[in-house]
Amino acid sequence: MTDCIFCKIINKEIPSYKVYEDEEVYAFLDLSQVTLGHTLVIPKKHVADIFDYQGAEAGVVFAKIPKIARAMEHALPEMQGMNIVNNNKELAYQTVFHSHLHLVPRYTTEDDFSIKFKDNSQKYSQAELQALASKLNEQVMKDV
């Protein structure tokens, strides 16, 4: 893709702060640095989002996450945890349409980063949840 900022970073047309690189994956510091060490992990092949991966492509990228996360944990000893965030499509806050995972180090409860999961379990009956699980399972098995 010619107008993709991440493709340009991979091709060295735009500089970046490289954290890791191999034949399939590139990781670099996010310029926003939500917290110190905030790193993006991207496939070198242009893939728009999670829905665009084919076959084992996602596994190649996701398999590198523990290696990079452990390196971050050792390099940033004050880090107390990490959020791994993957936004897909505009409604889910994806702003660069080249698949990427955010590795966001967490240091304190005041480090200005939060994700909230609301408990909506009372909205759905067991029968509704079972029907949904069956529908999703059926679709997953079609795509195997």
Automatic annotation (TrEMBL):
Matching InterPro entries: HINT (IPR039384), Histidine_triad_CS (IPR019808), Histidine_triad_HIT (IPR001310), HIT-like (IPR011146), HIT-like_sf (IPR036265)
Active site: H100
Sequence ranges assigned to domain HIT in this UniProt record: 5-115
A Pfam family hit: HIT
UniProt-listed GO biological process terms: nucleotide metabolic process
GO molecular function per UniProt: catalytic activity
PANTHER family: ADENOSINE 5'-MONOPHOSPHORAMIDASE HNT1, HIT FAMILY PROTEIN 1
CDD domains: HINT_subgroup
Protein name, UniProt field: HIT family protein
SUPFAM superfamilies: HIT-like
Motif Histidine triad motif per UniProt: ranges: 98-102
